[in-house]
Amino acid sequence: MDEVEVVVAHSERATLRVGEVFLKVDGDRARAEVEARAMALAPVPTPEVLWHRPPALAIAALPGRALGRYGRPSTASPAAWAAAGAAIRTLHDAPLPPWPGRSADGLAAVLDVECAWLVANDVLPGGLVARNRRIAEAALRPWTPVFVHGDLQPSHVFVDGEEVIGIIDWSEAARGDALFDLAVLTLGHRDRLGDVLAGYGAGPGLDLDVIRAWWVLRSLLAVRWLAEHGFDPSAPGCEIDVLGAARL
User: Fold this and answer.
1) Which of 90, 101, 121, 230 sits at 20 to 30 Å (Cα–Cα) from 221?
2) Residues in domain Aminoglycoside phosphotransferase (predicted)?
3) Any residues with CB less than 8 A from the CB of 84 and at least 6 apart, and which?
4) Residue 147's beta-bridge partner residues?
């Protein structure tokens, strides 16, 4: 009998691996439904959905290895990162999913709450939070919505050599800002942004300052959630490092 491996587990969801099957259990049935629907619609490689019985989703394991992980150096080649950029472009050029995503106004309201919490709980100095809040504002502008993955960490992109063979964890997929996906992919590997953009290609609205603003905005919004769910946002190269390195 195959052993059961706990891949990740917290109060919102858990992922178990049994042999070549991943079993995801999500307390939010709507989020699990989005994941299954997004993988069916996305024009990029995704895991095979074996069955879906809310709140559980069973998917086949992918071969290959993750492009990278936050807090660790990536050993993937520049060509592999460029291939990830090309896959993202394919996703962003696809028809929009039928459900909406978050708005700039909605994100601004959440950002205010999170910044206040960071200061009130002495998680970060007030001056550091205020400086990053100003940088983050550049991301809160009107954007043309595209089909975004919504949580495109490099650990969610699987490659075999220089080929993307699968992208996992689609529960945050929606309509959104293309630059957000590019920022999440490179947040912990900011030196790889050039490789990603080489594969993604040029186009209107491709603003490096906005990508940097999304690095900051995503970090400000993530610190509390990560800390409260057993993750460490202060690990080298991760969210708090991003905030400390940000410059106006």
Assistant:
1) 90
2) 36-214
3) 67, 154, 157, 159, 164, 185, 196, 199
4) 175
Q: What is the pLDDT of residues 103-151, one digit of tens each?
A: 999 999 999 999 999 999 999 999 999 999 999 999 999 999 999 999 9
Return the CATH number at 162: 3.90.1200.10
pLDDT at 61 over 80: yes
Q: pLDDT digit string (tens) for 181-191? A: 999 999 999 99
Position 126: which residue type? G
- % of the chain exceeding 70 in pLDDT: 99
Is residue 148 in a domain?
yes
- Retrieve residue 31's tokens: 């989020």
| Domain extent at residue 229 | 63-245
pLDDT in tens, 28-49: 888 889 999 999 999 999 999 9
Domain count, the chain: 1
**What are the start-end ranges of the H helices in the chain?**
29-41, 78-92, 104-120, 126-136, 178-186, 193-200, 208-228, 239-245
Does residue 217 lie in a domain region?
yes
The answer to whether position 225 is within a domain reads yes
Q: Which two tokens stand for residue 121?
A: 């709980």
Percentages of the chain per state (helix, strand, coil), in multiples of 5: 45, 20, 40
- Per-residue burial over 73-85, b if 16 or more Cβ lie within 10 Å, else e, is ebebeeebbbbbb
